[in-house]
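Hi L.,

You mentioned the student needs an example of a multi-chain input paired with its predicted structure. This one should do, with 679 residues in total across all chains.
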Amino acid sequence: MSTGAGYGAELLRRQLADLNRNPPDTFSVGLGEDESIYNWELMIMGPESTPYEGGFFRANLKFPESFPNMPPEMIFQSEMWHPNVYSSGKVCISILHPPGTDEHNPQETAEERWRPIIGVEQIVLSVISMLSDPNDESAANLDAAVQWRDDRKGYKRKVRQTVEKSQNDM
Amino acid sequence: MPVSVNLRVNANERFSVTIDSIDILVSGLKTVLETEKQIAVAEQRLIYKGRVLKDDQTLSSYGFGDGDTIHLVRGTARRSEPNSPPNTAAASSSPSSAPAPAPAPSANPFASGFPSASAPGMPNPDQMRAAMRSPMMQQMLSNPEIMQSMINMNPQLRAMADQNPQIRQALQDPAMLRQMAEMASNPDAMAQAQRGMELQMSQMENMPGGMDAMRRAFSEMGAFDDPTAGVGGGPTPSNESNANGDGPANTPMVNPWSSAPAPAPAGNANANGGGNPMAGFGGLGGLGAGMPGMPGMTPPMNPDGTPNVDALSQMLDNPMFNAALEQMSSNPALMQQMMNNPMMQEMTRSNPQMAAMMNNPEMMRTMMNPQMLRAAINMQRQMGGSGGMGGMGGLGGFGGMGGLNIPPSPSAWNGVGVPPAAPPPTPQQSSPQPSTINGLDFSNLLQNFNGASASNPTPASNQTPEERYARQLQSLNDMGFGDNAANIGALQATNGNVNRAVERLLGGS
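Structure written out for the whole complex:
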């Protein structure tokens, strides 16, 4: 099992147990292959009324040892086409940015960024909400961002392809 | 050994099946589900702990345990509602869902609750933020145990929670509490949380018995109703008649779920520092008065923010309240837990008298004595301030928040203790605020909440969309969206949520 010790690991264990006892509707979580408490596996069900509807997107949450002082990373394993998801699958969303302010990104206030009181469920719900509501101010996938802005139809078609792919992968 | 498998289809549909052994193949489970639920094996997708279950594996190979929950999703997921089989009522939170019979449409307390939540007393967001940042607050929010003990302490609440696991879940879900707290302190988060709220609301509404529990809670709280209290109030018949959510947004209707947050004036406890034993006493008074107030029954306040003494006295006479007090004062573990809070420790360190007091169970009990509390109230009244009267009462309001209350005043949070770091609110700040504060237009947000509930299917759903969304249409018009057809389209697609309709209209999606 996990080797995690200390407050962060305990916090994660509790949240995982909670999420398994009362699974949310829109996603499911468990530990990854290595069974480390710092590495979670997620299955996100594409939100209804969005192009992602019907998709089953696999992702990992990787927590640092310094959790909850520092935020986890979220990485989609399934192919994702979204302005705020890098082609590597890494999610770029303000609440997963380390606390404090960023000189490169001054419009992002401390409130929007990671705070230790943010729970895992909140992270995932934020990411799900991001799926339906991309933030074109901080694009991680420039092509997707441009397409989202200029060619909404083409964007949706591309997303639908990833949805079908995710269904076939099951 | 037979094990039970809980299946979760969506927010409204769960069921469980019993299988002979966890060594069953996933394909075997699917066959069982096909027989039970008439969902073709080929259409079933089972998701457990973040993984899709593969047909040729056993449940045990995924570490499945008795009573665990598996997501069951229909796999023929084309555009049409992948999550809801046709024979179930679709989640009303789903914008795409058609009107479905609502379990108890006329009893929706939220429909009428939200509009009146714009009553005076909405805390200043800055104060709120300061209060939320306090370590004590954060610890409390992130500690499910505390919430748990608070639930268990109150027999009424516990009964409610036992009957309705979802209510329990809502009350002790740290994430949800946190979200609400954040919402209160951050206008942006408020807007974001709104989406989650809609979901929660629909869950509550669709839960069999949920509405009844709510209603029961309401009528129980009616005991604390005092017509003389400006913002306090209980359920009134008009709650019901307005329950379809179409009423005007700012109906000055009394509603216990929204009555709580009248900011108390800066606590004497804060202002006088640690040297004054009375100050600590005031804070504790608040502690006693507020703690059991889980279902949202914060001490009634007058519009000017002073506690309504008559209403408080009435509250102190209520047997339920007394029972809760008794339980709390006789629960050393809970007191201990509260004492372990760094804030409290700081407080007791700087005030030896306080420490002595807190460590003396007899003393605590005496202090929780209603007569004592009443005397304290009177004393405070004579002193011209209300000390920490709000006290943990704020938490009471918060419990209500589990059922979507608007969080209590920040000074109430401060009242329990003496967070020296948190600046004592000035009298001016702590007087009730108008519904529009610092540019944050609550009435608009609340209108949206109302819109969300208005979208819940009601028997009167033969209204035309124009009629149903008349108010939201007016808002859109006022914002300069002139194309009525497009506006109606957007409102229908967003279930009457003005904010999202605007996004939609702007985004052209």
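You could point out the following to them. The beta strands of chain B are 3-8, 14-19, 44-48, 51-52, 69-74, 436-437, 440-441. Residues 77-123, 221-307, 383-460 of chain B have pLDDT under 50 and may be disordered.

Best wishes,
N.
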